[in-house]
Amino acid sequence: MGDIINNLQKVMTHANIQAEISCRPKHIYSIYNKMSRKGISFDQIHDVRGVRIIVQGIPACYTTLGVIHTHWKPISGEFDDYISVPKDNFYQSLHTAVVYDDGKTLEVQIRTPEMDQNAELGIAAHWKYKEGTTHDEAYEKKILWLRSIMEWRQDVEDAGEFVDGMHTDVFKDRVYIFTPKGDIIDLPSGSTPIDFAYHVHTDVGNRCRGAKVNGKLVGLDYSLKTGDKVEILTAKRGGPSRDWLNPNLGLVKTQRAKSKIKAWFKRQAIEHNINQGKILLDKELHRLGLEDVNIEQLARSLEFKSTEDLYVAIATGDLTLAKIVNQLMLEEEDEEGFKFTTRPKVEVGQQSHDTISVLGLKGLLTSMARCCNPVPGDEIIGYITRGRGATIHRIDCPNILRIG
User: Are residues 304 and 343 located together in one domain of the fold?
Assistant: First the structure.
């Protein structure tokens, strides 16, 4: 590689181009991955040998490219201009492959020092170039990209899924798709109309029902190609299909779209559980005659952050209705009370309508429980609490049986 670098340096000097040239060795494992990913043989790998040329300014990059192609024959289909059309992660460089003097291929990467800094150290390295400067549109685009990545991270279940998404959605080969208004959308190679829809907007993806590519209807498993003009056909309401997550159907390729679909179904499940839990609790409270229960206070006493969390716990079976009734009984009777277990019968006395007379409890304030409403002749049981006397239940009251 030393002879190649020296030869390139002489060519650059002769063309009056100030350049810093270094070799770019390719690891054996990287070569193996590329062969496996693209299904090609070792002879079709054109970047086993590579050099990187750092020049001052974008015009110098294209001048250097012309000089390289003048001295060595370029290989067809191996040129990529990531300067005029950067990758989704804002990587910029010129890539070309030529047939060198020894008859073997040589890959050449051409970029500026700032592009090299961004490629080697990441997008954050660009910030130090911008401290104290005025508004820069390219810089703002980088910030927006970072924000979108962080927003997307909130929809991902775990860190592994996020890393897989970065691998497939950011570091994969790209295709460039046109919207109906002529805007360019940058997507990973192999993306489908559903991936495109979710890239445009989450709501567009959720309501996607079909797609037109270059004015013709296509299937949702259509693999988009650079230059395609895509129009998404949407429904007024509804959501994604679970079939979209079936890997055998090939309807969704990007991890970002998959995460948004999973998030939609998760939200639907939560809303369904909230409704089901509310119905179950309302039915039980109505059966017990407890119509004026403060649900927010009940949720706090059971250590839930909100009433929605309470309803979800009821619907999923994490919280039983018996436990809720127990809590209501404790709040009504006072935790400092004690239960008497005698089985006297209710007698009608001369007290007011809201008190009753119980054999053995003469002179003690008593009241009938609203859940079972014992009547004269019933066998009873009850709680005695400080300051409130005794609350009387029938011996077969289900609430007493639960806390007995």
Answer: no
Backbone torsions φ then ψ of 113, nearest 5 degrees: -60, -40
Tell me which of 297, 317, 333 is where a domain ends. Answer: 333
Query: Would the CA dihedral through 168, 172, 178, 184 be positive or negative?
Result: positive
The radius of gyration of the chain's CA atoms, rounded to the nearest angstrom, is 36
Q: How far apart are CA 97 and CA 105, in angstroms?
A: 7
Residues in the chain: 404
Torsion sign across C-alpha atoms 358, 364, 365, 366: negative
Domain count, the chain: 4
Instruction: Please give the chain's pLDDT, 404 residues, in tens.
Output: 678 888 899 999 999 999 999 876 555 556 666 566 666 665 555 556 788 999 999 999 999 999 999 998 988 878 889 898 887 667 889 999 888 888 888 889 999 988 887 776 555 444 444 444 555 566 555 555 555 555 555 555 555 555 555 445 454 567 888 999 888 888 888 899 999 999 899 899 999 999 999 999 999 999 999 889 999 999 988 889 988 988 888 899 888 888 888 888 888 888 888 998 899 888 888 877 776 788 888 888 888 888 888 888 888 888 888 788 777 776 665 444 444 444 444 444 444 344 455 555 555 567 777 777 787 777 787 766 555 567 777 878 777 665 55
Choose the final residue of a domain: 86, 121, 156. Answer: 121
* Co-location of 116 and 9 in the same domain: yes
Q: Yes or no: say if 253 and 247 are a contact pair by the CB < 8 Å rule.
A: no
The answer to whether the beta carbons of residues 314 and 279 sit under 8 Å apart is: no
Contact indicator for 221, 250 with CB cutoff of 8 Å: yes
Query: What pTM does this model have?
Result: 0.42
Helix (H, G, I), strand (E, B) or coil at 381: strand
CA atoms of 323 and 320, how far apart (whole Å): 5
Domain that holds residue 172: 167-263
Same domain, 96 and 11: yes
Report yes or no on 162 lying in a domain.
no
Of 208, 301, 205, 323, residue with least CA distance to 258: 205
Same domain, 171 and 230: yes
